[in-house]
Amino acid sequence: MNEATSNVLKDFTELHDNMVAELKKRLPQLDTVALYDPTEITHGEKFKIDTPAILIEMVEAKPGDAITGGRQAFDCAFQFYCILSKKTPQLPLAVRNLAAAVSQVVGFGEPTEKEIEHDLIPSQSWGLSKRGVKPVAKDSVAIYPGMFKPGKGGSDKALGYDSMIVSFEQSIHLGELMLDPKEFLPGEITIGGDFTITPDWEDPTNGPES
Fold first, then answer.
1. How many distinct structural domains can be found in the chain?
2. Which has the closest alpha carbon to 126: 105, 112, 102, 101?
3. Residue 65 has what pLDDT?
4. Is residue 109 a part of any domain in this protein?
5. What is the C-alpha separation between 116 and 122, in angstroms, rounded?
6. Between 49 and 42, the higher pLDDT residue
7. What CATH code is carried by the domain that includes residue 141?
8. Is residue 202, in this structure, part of any structural domain at all?
């Protein structure tokens, strides 16, 4: 392995972990910073999450500009769900302010003392700029409403939670994937549906021969 490929990002796990670490460091008020995992949500059942919370989701990864060094480029789109509980005073304003703070972390890295002295603001690469993570495209950073569970009216207007979403795009360059066997334990799933398989020698438009 040559020097060009010896220190590149091997998967998305380290990127996610660095995002979590950066958000926790810059916004210590957060109680939860975690992966958005819809498989943990069972239909018809309740689940709890400690707020203020940020849930991280990668919603898209398209081929990016090819580069040398044996790396695969992806132009990725991420969403950070910013969530506050109904107990938050002035909930709609508070969740907007949380999203604004998160967008600042997304758009800009934490400056060093030297950068502060020279009035410089670093770009955000989650500490992985030398390993194939390009700076967040600042013109891609956007804030928009997430899900809101309304109440029944009267004094019950804010049941559930309110959220805003911070979305952004970032180019990621991966080297040779290093898959962790622990992530791929054997298992079994059930897929709903009524599947009928017709042998290729039988015409499905005709009934059985008499």
1. 1
2. 105
3. 80
4. yes
5. 10
6. 49
7. 3.30.2000.10
8. no
